[in-house]
Amino acid sequence: MRRPAINITPPERAGRIFIGLLAAIAGVALLAAGAGTLAAILELALVLAGLDLLITGLLGHCPLYAKLGHIPHSLRRQS
């Protein structure tokens, strides 16, 4: 299995990792508090969004950026 190309800048990667980790932890803490069904669904969505940010930050690859063809200016090669 080939690793996807890096398409996220280092500062964005760090931000995604930090915010994703905080969101995942906050979502799990809120889920543990035990609330209503709607609150639990929203908290689960927060955990999943946090994990998505964390994983894309760790990998350095955003599938949405790849699909849209977005490459940050600092990662573009000079031609």
Plain-language structure description:
There is one protein chain. With 79 residues, the chain is an all-alpha fold. It has one domain. The chain has helices at 10-33, 37-59, 63-68. It is elongated, with a radius of gyration of 16 Å.
Oligomer: single chain
**Beta-strand proportion:** under 5%
Rg, nearest Å: 16 Å
- Give the overall silhouette: elongated
Per DSSP, the total helix count is 3
Helix content: 55-70%
Number of strands: 0
Low-confidence stretches: none
Mean pLDDT: 90
> Can you tell me the number of structural domains?
1
User: What class, by secondary structure content?
Assistant: mainly alpha
Give the termini distance in whole angstroms: 29 Å
Helix and strand succession?
HHH
Largest sheet: none
Offer a quick outline of the entry.
Helices cover 67% and strands 0% of the residues.
Short descriptors:
79 residues, mainly alpha, elongated
Topology:
Elements: H1 10-33, H2 37-59, H3 63-68
Helix pairs in contact: 1-2
